[in-house]
Amino acid sequence: MSKKLFVAATGTDIGKTFVAALMVKKLKDAGYNAGYYKAALSGVDTSENETMLCDAYYVNKIAGLNENIKNLVSYVYRKAFSPHLASKSEGNPVEMNKLVQDFNNALLKYDYVTMEGSGGIVCPLRYDHEKIFIEDIIKAFGLPTVIVADSGLGTINHTVLTVEYLKSKSISVKGVILNRYNEHSILHQDNKKMIEEIAKIPIVAEVKDNDKQLNININELLKLYE
Ligand SMILES: Nc1ncnc2c1ncn2[C@@H]1O[C@H](COP(=O)(O)OP(=O)(O)OP(=O)(O)O)[C@@H](O)[C@H]1O
Ligand SMILES: [Mg+2]
Fold it and tell me: Domains in the chain, please, with CATH?
């Protein structure tokens, strides 16, 4: 049976795509059949070939997946809004059935599927007569999570709140990955220590600016997937 992992973050633009690409690349480089999936992304104009700018395109390229973008992401919205709001003006609201189908297709094809979240952890994907939040997908797919967090000021608060939110929904948090980490920064070093102490979740990797590889033992990376 395929193994899977959800990449959450403390907010939008924190580095989910950057880190997910390195995770998938690491698995592939080690010879594993690894894939990627994202439910919904916003702020991409599909009509003007801007798919080149999207998360799925980036991961496809960095990890060398050679996959059709359509198989990597279920919903793409033009406006840079949360999917629940973008779909109100653009139509095409998120349907749980389609997510399940697309994710299952990824599971059929790949042994390790890394699913990227949208935004932070509280992100409504659909909010009309039907309501779909990120945690509904995590639970429906039975995914453990890893949280990508910034290394700088404010991250203790953001990370601990994200961990506690996931725990309150009975979702497993396997670890935190600190992005844009500077090993010489006293602030970053202390944030790492404090998050581990307060949230009681291990920092499983630190990613520096423009890293080309994920600095984690392959067995530790494999252990994050369930
Ligand atoms: N370690 C890093 N080194 C260099 N650039 C980075 C790093 N982490 C993130 N970035 C850049 O910062 C920007 C935001 O990162 P990214 O797209 O990965 O965030 P995200 O959490 O996936 O955002 P979204 O919520 O839109 O999916 C991107 O331009 C990305 O290339
Ligand atoms: Mg992203």
Answer: 3-224 (3.40.50.300)
